[in-house]
Amino acid sequence: MRRLTKTAAVAGVVALVLAGAACSKKSDDSASTETGGENCVEKTDDMKVGMAFDVGGEGDQSFNDSAAKGMKQAACEFGFDFQTAEAQDGEAESAREGRLQELVDAGYNPVVAVGFAYSASVGKVAAENPDVSFAIVDDAVEGDNITNLLFAEEQGSFLVGAAAALKSETGNVGFVGGVETELIQKFEAGFIAGAKAVKSDIKVQTRYLTQPPDFSGFGDPAKGKTAAEGMFDAGADIVYHAAGGSGGGVFEAAKAADGWAIGVDSDQALTADDSVKDIILTSMVKNIDVAVHEFLKSVHDGAVKTGAQVYDLESNGVGYSTTGDHLKDVADQLEDYKKQIVDGTIEVPTKP
Fold this sequence. Notes:
Shape: globular
Order of helices and strands: EHEHEHEHEEHEHEHEHEHEHEEH
Distance between the termini: 28 Å
Number of helices: 11
CATH topology of the largest domain: Rossmann fold
Radius of gyration: 20 Å
């Protein structure tokens, strides 16, 4: 296949005895050592932030890393301590509950849960701890002390779908989802809609790596690689992933096939391994870091907004990256689609 031309340490570290989550990983982080060193303010805030990562944890080059970035930026700016803990593949609901409760018991407030897998646990633990502020990324959970950090993933995915159709030479593109949930279906729906808005007869291959309650599809690069290889073998020249850490495998498959890949959540042309950065056409950027930072700032300022806080194209909560200038020849068309979504001319579906 011919690819298109591509011109604090926590003072007195509190040991999290994850009794209800014995298989969890934890890390002790610091505003001074992790988030800017000498440029960070001294610890001046009594606030202690807990963050519970989803499967893949920090280092996934995707949504967990984006959440961590927002927390560390806030810690640097406001001078508070933080603690993180990580989910494991196949863990029980009790493990997620235990992880959140141990953060609370250790004095962390607020607590940020990264990922919809924490929905039930956040609802339960927040109800049992009404004086603690909770935030959850990617789901709406009711509670007077819960802030829902939500995104219009379908809108950003529409734009990278349009980009894929505009750049494809074979008229055949692919979508790899990590786990088939309503959230990831929003990525798929937007991607298909954007591609077909450009080219109604374009072929869009889709594949999910796992089905709930198996969430390992977000942390299995081998499965991501196999899925993408099948798509390239079947004629695709561009594959978009919404699969967290499994996306690394999609990038490897694109490299081997001399094709393109589209990243997700972060600008993955900046975060992925150097060996694959050049095959990342664009990424659907989901600014989780901005949402987390704004939530933590609101807690710091004593002005927490609970309930749904939605980040969309209009608020620059989602979008697409331009690293590498691979889209400069179609930029005007993409911006026109963006304008039509923002003004309501185009209504992007949330289900395939």
